[in-house]
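Lab notebook, bench 4. Continuing the backlog of folding jobs that were queued last week. Each job is logged with the same field layout so the records can be merged later without manual cleanup. Today's entry covers ORC1-type DNA replication protein, a 547-residue chain. Filled in by technician R.K.

JOB TYPE: sequence-to-structure
TARGET: ORC1-type DNA replication protein
LENGTH: 547
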Amino acid sequence: MSDDNSEPTRTEDVETDETDGFSTSLEETAIGDEEPSQGLFDDLLSGEPIFENKEVLRPSYTPHELPHRTDQINKMATILVAALRGETPSNILIYGKTGTGKTASAKFVSKELESTSQKYSVPCDVEYINCEVTDTQYRVLAQLANKFIEKNEARIDRKVDALEDRLEALEEYHEDGRSETTDGSPDDADPTDDVSFATDTEPQSTGSPVETEGSTPSDDDTGSTHPLASTPFSDREAVEDRIDALEEDKESFQEVPMTGWPTDRVYSVFFDAVDYDERVVVIMLDEIDKLVEKSGDDTLYNLSRMNSELENSRVSIIGISNDLKFTDFLDPRVKSSLGEEEIVFPPYDANQLRDILQHRSDVAFKGDALSEDVIPLCAAFAAQEHGDARRALDLLRTAGELAERSQAETIVEKHVRQAQDKIELDRVVEVVRTLPTQSKLVLFAIILLEKNGVHSINTGEVFNIYKRLCEEIDADVLTQRRVTDLISELDMLGIVNAVVVSKGRYGRTKEISLSVPIDETEAVLLSDSRLSNIDDVQPFVQARFEN
Ligand SMILES: Nc1ncnc2c1ncn2[C@@H]1O[C@H](COP(=O)(O)OP(=O)(O)O)[C@@H](O)[C@H]1O
Ligand SMILES: [Mg+2]
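JOB STATUS: finished
OUTPUT FIELD FOLLOWS
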């Protein structure tokens, strides 16, 4: 798998120079009667550290064990084992809410698949793509094309090495005074090899006689048997030709640039790269809904019809999504092809989250750094948050950091509650910070009204203040209808709460209130340079009462 999720490397083997390293330089800095330090860090260091290995609680860490996902993992394995038999596995669609272990399980399974395929020398490649990052057809295809080109090059290098070993063996064989030809000895050679070698005229099929020619000569080969005995090659020249052909193939691969080519050219390079060798290819598209949302279903359409055109290889797709609704936007053919098998990842309940946290905390924390109620509370909070293991782990890590910062010896309930508030506030800050300017102005208008003690704010009032704010910073003024939409969006993001109330014969209106901490939110808005230019907002709000 190409996506690198390797464990944190330790720095054990850092070399220190005993003679003129640390000790001397410390003495030097201590020259004079000045203290070498004023103890800025001493207090912090003296507190008993809480963490043994904090990395284990980070999202980037891939756990070796995934409790409560055995069923899902086994189901994936049952489907994918086909790849190890040289058959095409069904496509799989995996879905479940965020933090239900989809990515972790899929990566676990693909690692196992790749290592087993190596163990039994079955050609099988898994490619992982996160479509939240790689979110257009061009980028997905380009990334895949380049990955497979890389793999093909590596394969060619291995084959050439093996062939060169054969040549060397041949050399030695001749030095021992034997004859050039294989003197009819390839009885033990697989007859199909000869066939495939004989038909090996097109560059397409250069990959066919792979496994035999790729194997390194055994002792047997260098001994009495002719070194080319169990190969499809009749003589030295044939081996050399083969090496040349492989090198030529390698030269012909052209990496796809990250922009600029027409998409069909990218597709065709990708197609050829996949088809270069006989193998089963599993393409894992994580956050596949993001790809469909951003660029439609062309990529999936192209990938799912590939198998009918591939000659040497087979492709199987695993799509991973946080919700199933995206399939409504798929071409029916794509939908049925992608959803051949579906695996659901249900939310974890509080007990399951406890197990997950317990597994990790044994490694993450020092002996008795955790008080008893911490894990159950983290689990309970995260279970309310749709059973999200990521949230549970964040809570536990943040609680630990807060405890560490306050120099507590153990993490207690209080730290978990603080962590919960901090994470929630961080979320709000991030959401508000990344709002488009127009939404920020609408939100700012709501904040100004609240700060002036206006309750049950309605859309018209928001619009009036919003308009003045726009004029103040020379921004376009949207229609009241658009502003109403923006208010609904803020509602969906959980930043404001807008309820529709009936005003009898005056129709219906929205009553809007802020659902996030007002001062922090205002501070985030004012950190936007455009909004911070509005000096005195008081008159606008006054004006509301004059209207
Ligand atoms: N069953 C589990 N056991 C241990 N850790 C888990 C488990 N499920 C999820 N996690 C952890 O929770 C976090 C979120 O999981 P992830 O697989 O990224 O969720 P998803 O892809 O469904 O959003 C990751 O850090 C992952 O290691
Ligand atoms: Mg994921």
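OBSERVATION: The chain has four domains: 69-123+278-343, 152-252, 348-430, 436-546.
SIGNED: R.K.
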